[in-house]
């Protein structure tokens, strides 16, 4: 439930920021970006830190003077992009609610059935729904 | 669990997430191309059956008993491997630092692909088991301990970085007790992380009215 509330908050933020252009990023792309921009520094300064603990990020901060600025930019970009991606994923089915009622009546939710139906109706669903599917990383 | 039939759609829609890199898949080296989140999603959703009695704890107990008894490794699939083989699964090569559970940056994208797959609606309602495996190089008990740490490190990264709900993930290390190639026990192919789909989080929701 918390995620829904969070998603709603993010949606409001995205809408107030001017909508369509939410730069969302997949976790795979975020991982590749961080590896490319920070990989060498991580191997050099933080090779003993488990990335999942968050200590790699603080280790990079501690070695700030020797870590390229692009690395910190990449970390920020990855964080912002994946946060926006998750928010978009949480918001999408809300944005597509009317379209789902119209085009997907009787579809049993779960197992991505609803998503498959919305994508099959991609050309006729409302713009907000379409944008939501794109921002969620599910439409292309 | 019969609804996973239209995966062509899922594949097409997730194709945008495909990575053009070879990060993360090292030991199987050139023979295996990297797995995209679309492929991961597809394979983990190919559920034919669950085995509710097969939990991380049960598996860990089986592996610990085998190590304690120092039973010879079977020449065909071990009992553990046979039970796991029935579940939907993926096999990934995550690169760790030597004798450590530290995931190397080369594998961040591979981890990200797994997180992306777990956030896809087709997998939203499922739980997974992360299993770490070694080959037979080195000490059997140490291999068991290291593989447990590595499986936990992957779970931790998926939760803290990939934002996957921890309630959806279990982690267990099986050391060398579930070899992929029992007749080639030192082959690096045996060093792998497997992810199995082990059940649902909640009952599936009702149809739209």
> What is the SS-derived class of chain A?
mainly alpha
User: How would you name the CATH homologous superfamily of chain B?
Assistant: OmpA-like domain
Chain pair sharing the greatest interface? A-B, 45 and 54 residues
In total, the number of domains of chain B comes to: 1
Output the helix-strand order of chain A: HHHHHHH
Number of strands of chain A: 0
Count of helical regions of chain A:
7
Radius of gyration of chain B: 17 Å
SSE topology sketch:
The complex is a heterodimer of chains A (140) and B (209).
Chain A: H1 2-16, H2 27-45, H3 55-62, H4 69-95, H5 97-103, H6 113-120, H7 127-135
Helix pairs in contact in A: 1-4, 2-4, 4-7
Chain B: H1 7-14, H2 37-44, H3 56-69, H4 79-84, E1 89-92, H5 108-119, E2 126-133, H6 140-160, E3 169-173, E4 192-200
Helix pairs in contact in B: 1-2, 2-5
Defining key terms:
heterodimer, A: 140 residues, mainly alpha, B: 209 residues, alpha+beta, 60s Ribosomal Protein L30, Chain: A, four-stranded mixed sheet, globular, disordered N terminus
Write a structural description.
The complex is a heterodimer of chains A (140) and B (209). In chain A, 66% of the residues lie in helices and 0% in strands. Chain A is mainly alpha-helical and 140 residues long. The longest helix of chain A is centred in the middle third of the chain and has 27 residues, at 69-95. The radius of gyration of chain A is 19 Å and the shape is elongated. The model of chain A is unreliable at 6-21 (pLDDT under 50). Chain B has a single domain (29-200), classed as OmpA-like domain (60s Ribosomal Protein L30, Chain: A). Chain B has six helices and four strands; from the N terminus they run ααααβαβαββ. Chain B has a four-stranded mixed sheet, sandwiched between helices. In chain B, helix 1 (7-14) packs antiparallel against helix 2. Chain B is globular. The relative contact order of chain B is 0.20. Residues 1-32 of chain B have low confidence and may be disordered. Chains A and B meet through helix 2, helix 4 and helix 6 of A and helix 1, helix 5 and helix 6 of B.
